[in-house]
Structures are given as structure tokens and as C-alpha cells.
Amino acid sequence: MTEPGKPRKTCILQPPESQTETPEQSVNNVIAEAVSESLSSFGPAFKQAVCCQLEQTYHIKQREIPERINEFTNAIEAMFGTGAKLIELRIIEAIHNKMPAFVHFPKQGDLLFANYIDELRYF
Asked: What pLDDT band is residue 10 in, cutting at 50, 70 and 90?
């Protein structure tokens, strides 16, 4: 019991942040981290240049990439041509390292980045 005249302390129990995340937010966080790590793997100047180009030319902010994955894919393919596949593969590798239980089997033999992300969302 508390003494008369002393205020009572109230405790509010909240689950850790990771438990308050929806599955969609969790997947978006994994995608965002994988994109950031993958772009960084080419060097900080490369990452900064790509992010600036995405924002200025394609109006895609880095935090919006998970929700705008098709636009992101089109943008990097426009910027790098066939070289975009290397970036996409690095992102897929980073996602796989974060979520090794997710396995994707392309339906037509071609690994398409946008299809991979769609399947990840269903997982």
C-alpha cells in the first residue's frame, strides 16, 4: 500500500516493439534492410547516388521502396539495364539470409525480382 498523500505509480505493460509489428510491416522491414544492405555492398557513394536518383528522377524515397517494389524494379532496370539483375540478386540474397525459411521456386524458370517479393509477402 502507498502512504496517504503519496501518488501511486502506474505501470503500463507493453509488448516489445517486435511483437506489435504486423506481418506486413515485418516483411517491409526485411525488404528495406535488404535493399539498404545490398546497395551499401557496392559502396556508400553508389548507395547515395542510387538513392538520390530514385528520389529525384523516380520520386521514390528509400523508405517507400517496400511498398513501391514494382516502381523500384522499373527504376533500377532503367538506370542499370541488365546490370539491375545483379542488384536484384544481392537483395534476394540478403532477404534469404534474413528469412532462410522462405524458399522461392520460379514458375517459368526465370527468377523475376517482383515475383520473388510477391511470393515473400504471401509467405
From this structure: low
